Amino acid sequence: MSGRIAGKIALVTGAGSGLGEATAQRFAEEGAHVVITDINAEQAESVCQDISAAGGSAEYHYQDVTDERAWDTLVGMIIKDHGRLDIVVNNAGIVIRGSVEDTTLEDWRKTQAVNLDAVFLGTRAAVKAMKGNGGSIINISSIEGMVGEPTAAAYNASKGGVRIFTKSAALHCAAEGYGIRVNSVHPGFIATPMVENAIAAAPPVEGAALLERVNSEIPLGSMGEAVDIANGCLFLASDESKYMTGSELVIDGGFTCH
Question: Which of 12, 53, 133, 210 is disulfide-compatible with 89, CB 3.0–4.6 A?
Fold first, then answer.
């Protein structure tokens, strides 16, 4: 531990598993107190216990990231308990596979609500809390917010929205002199439960073909690990990235170099 964000108060949504779990753990390792939120209490509480057992500091709160009032309540509680909020990682997300032809309106709206609307709500709440002291907001997009995938119409749209919304928020905060940096992270194919479940949800032949294609198209030869994204988030959360805002941090093994 080098204390790169020592004493900071960080909120990570969807931190019960995958990228959020790894990010929460890295933040705690580097000295932050981490507020972990998720809709899966059992998983998130387990992450908190692991952090505490390793000597870190964390707490869990249930959160439906699509609930506007819940955001105000949560951030208000953090400010009351800790006096400030320094870092927010809008990580919670879902993927429902489907092309433009077979995606239902219900699935489209659900995807936008979790992946895009919640990022807006989280960013807005963070700006309100941080504008007196500055801070770092990190929005998890995807390489699929930069390139298309024929069977991920709703996901592509949501992550593309996160990408450009982040730039708008970054410009606003800079113009207002808030001292708040807003950046997006664009993971490639990472071996997380969400990616594995998305592949498993496809018909067996299609899923196997997708997995083979993905691995063959990654220049570094394989999917990344959750900690690879967590390290990128740590960089953006720390003062090491103090001259970055509105930027896109792509961590994809070279996939988008094609």
Answer: 12
Upper half-sphere CA count for residue 23 (Cβ side, 13 Å): 35
- Classify 215 as helix, strand or coil: helix
User: Rounded to an integer, what is the distance from CA 244 to the centroid of its chain?
Assistant: 17
The answer to whether the pTM exceeds 0.85 is yes
Distance between CA atoms of 216 and 156, rounded to whole angstroms?
21
Please, what are the averages of pLDDT over each run of 10 residues along the chain (258 residues)? 91 97 98 98 97 98 98 98 98 95 98 98 98 97 96 97 98 98 97 76 78 87 95 98 98 94
Report in angstroms the alpha-carbon separations of 107 from 65, 86, 111, 156, 209: 17, 34, 6, 13, 24
Strand pairing of 87-90 and 248-251? Answer: unpaired
Which pLDDT belongs to residue 62? 98
pLDDT of residue 1: 55
Please list the active-site residues. 155
Distance of alpha carbon 131 from alpha carbon 182, whole angstroms = 12
Helix-strand-coil split of the chain, %, nearest 5? 50, 15, 30
What is the dihedral angle through the alpha carbons of 212, 202, 116, 241, rounded to the nearest 10 degrees? -20
